[in-house]
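A quick aside before the break. I want you to see a complete sequence-to-structure record at least once, exactly as it would be stored in a machine-readable document. Don't worry about memorizing anything.
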Amino acid sequence: MRVGLLTTSFPRYEGDIPGNFVLGFARALLAEGHQVHVLAPEPAAAEPPPDFSPLALSWVPYLRPRALERTFYGAGVPDNLRRDPLAFLGLAPFSLNLAAHAARRVSAWDALVSHWALPCALVAGSLRGARPHLAVLHSADVSLLERLPGRRALARRVLHGASDLLFSSRDLRGRFVRLLDPLERAEHGARMHVCAMGIDAAQAPLTDEARAALRAGLGLHRFTLLSVSRLVPIKGLVHAIEAMAELPDAELVIAGDGPERAALEQKARARAARVRFVGEVRGAEKARWFAAADVFVMPSTPRASGRTEGAPTSLLEAMQAGLPVIASRVGGTPDLVEPGVSGALVSPGRGGEIARAARELEQAPAQRRRMGAQARKTAQEYEWSTLGPHFSRLLTGAERS
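That is the input. The structure line, written in tokens, reads:
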């Protein structure tokens, strides 16, 4: 099957973080024998598309001069729009150009996949004809739909323009369903599925001796909490920093970059908190931090706009590495973390709860090992090799039959 995949985010090079799970999704379809052609926003840097063969990738230009293309990538569309008024300039031109590029190619496609409803699902829905269209919705999609005028009409257009919808968490599915009329909920419920985005296959865990050497090489000599994320407000890292005031024998490592980094560093200094910022990590370097840490912390906090976490890939990667998790009880996190089994769920915005959960795990190494083993087991269910066949069946309609 020849699949056209429309997205507002895609890696600009191998190992790039924005849209990396969309690349994973595309590769999962490739592994099922499909051909995939991705249409994604052109990055501001004037470089040719990366070679992800056999996947085909075309950048969609949307503003000139190219330096004005500020809408996508970076901190992500919601935070780009919040911080840079010029980012709004690209919204309408990209939607129009994406539609034009897709219209020229759709005759060569047997099916469509869209990541992010606005505009990708709307564009795919308007062009698909009788073709299957799997619309994948993420957190920013649903929170935006909830706020827009005419949100019910837009939600209906997304619903009726797709053969199936896939949400990254139960929370997002429920919020989308509430935008529909009761009869539509009943009639189309079987077409709305839930699954977190996937992760690559697990690496073999380190021996105790290798892990001790790794920790020494990284300069870790205390109980270590790790966070891996973009440094943006929704990640709630300020509350993890607040928790460190109650954990004098522990250290927090924050891996990632973004517009909040300077403010977070200032917060850590003001609190005299033991926090290390290591910047953005990828590939083998990220795997080393996962292997060296004791606990993964994800203190996400919902935004006033209603935006919350979906099911972050970094959470599943940490679980896959055998780390117990301390995470806020928001969005898709409760779908993945079972309290007392694979980690602890805390109230968003409560640094004290993070500190208490960390202290309990610090004092119970046997419990940490048990939780880590269960976390790894859960994460393995979300490896791309496991999810790919399900996504393929959604495209062919076999998943509903």
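Two observations worth writing down. The radius of gyration is 21 Å. The longest helix spans residues 365-380. We'll return to this after the break.
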